[in-house]
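Field guide to reading this record: the first block holds the primary sequence, the second block holds the structure written as discrete tokens, and the final block holds curator observations. Each block starts with its own label. This record concerns Serine/threonine protein phosphatase, catalogued under organism Pararhodobacter oceanensis.

BLOCK 1 — SEQUENCE
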Amino acid sequence: MRSYAIGDIHGHLDLLHLAHKRIEADRARTGDAEAPVLHLGDLVDRGPNSRGVIETLLAGQIAGKPWIVLRGNHDTMFARFPDGYRDPVLREGLDYLHQNIGGSTTLAEYGIDLSEGRPIADIQTEAREKIPNEHRSFLLDAPLYHRRGPVLYVHAGIRPERALQDQTEADLCWIRKPFHDYTDPHPWLVIHGHTPVPEPRHYGNRVNIDSGAAFGGPLTAIVVESTTHGTEVYLLTNTGRTLLTP
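BLOCK 2 — STRUCTURE
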């Protein structure tokens, strides 16, 4: 069983095209045109072309490409911002317009006036008018995780020793320390992003593929091969595959 996965995109459409190109090259080598491509969320914010990322992935799904798009915390904040939503996980003093979040960059792509001192209620009203409903629905309808054989794909991770059906949206989209610190096996190998690392890393029970595209790093694409003998994860490069080992 083969699957592909791409880490946090954060508005870098050029890097997304490169990741898809590497996947297509691997498809050509294997003759596999059907294996799904999991996009692990955080399509938007910080980068220069979040709108283009949404439009590209939406058009691909409509065209019938085997693309699965998961929802990340930034996708939720963007899609719900026009309705006055503030994610309860955000620490005090942060909101979607804060420079650390990067939401202003995305809103500006839609022609929304972000003049200093403008009331946030006015910005939200304009966002409701200018952000296409299909873009917001595309993100809000995206699943929070995807299981495929012995592998679980999710944006941030899972709450250890909690049943999958009992995981909360905050767990799946925001979790860090409790998930990262857990070293025992999970019921699945968990492929995730959310927390930038210098390069994709296999920890034995999980694989982090957020290589920091939001902050000038590359965008990671991997291929996951599951057989009766186990599961192997390979980084896709311009020259082929590189095995990731714990």
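BLOCK 3 — OBSERVATIONS
The chain is about 30% helix and 20% strand.
The first strand starts at residue 2 and ends at 6.
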